[in-house]
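Troubleshooting: if your tokenizer reports a length mismatch, compare your output against this known-good record of 274 residues.
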Amino acid sequence: MKTKIFNRFESISDFNDYLNTHEVQKAFEGDEVSHEVTPRGKDFAFFGTKSYEEADRMLNFGDDKLAKMLQAELLDVENQETEQEVTQTFDLDVCGFFPDVAAYLSGDPCNMVTVVDTFADKEKVLNIIWQNDAHVKIKAKEIQECAARVINVILGLEKLGYKINLYYGHSSRDDDYNTIGALVKIKNSDEYIDTLRLAYPLVSASMKRRHMFSYLEKTPGVPVGFCWAHGKPIKITEAYHEQIEGMTVINFMDFRNKSCDYIKDYILGQNKAF
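Known-good structure output:
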């Protein structure tokens, strides 16, 4: 039977508490542990930070440099024209475009067919998952640009009245297709976009290669197959379909070249009931 581990954290604080209260599993003790001070742990090109401690500060307090890089890619949403989402349905009224014969013959005064515009409910909450599944050859600039487009879309949707919960999603597998995954909420639906706080989980390779590796190393029951290279990426939609039902996943590799309009249409298309 395949091992399938999944945890959901409702805040960065909850995620940190988990990491701080769990010990590294015995199988991971050694040079490959992501947060140990080892030659590999100091590999800035791979991790994006010089140490786990530096990455931890960025996760908890934000990073000005990353935030400025992200902000540089953002559009001026305040000056963008936005159209509220409209759904058109047919209804009967005393006047309209053409008659409904059955209603007319029955004596109903509302016997004319008209079109009714229904606007998006301004209190609807959308749950969006960002999965940074970029491989090692992807340049940081590409991730920044894609993450900025996602933020632009969220800003635009919130301007239309939608409320957004934003999660960082992670999933990986070993060669036997055992899986481990997690969701970390990085923005509540009642919060405004804070690029200082969001830049690190959205853009930095360290969120995956330090914090998520640490999560993998400290989670009881993880198969030994993950000890080499911490597994391989797998789409969270493939590994944890039931656990993320009703949520919309934006993963980097599928959306790296997509426009803001495409991403927006995709999100709203996944939430047609809204």
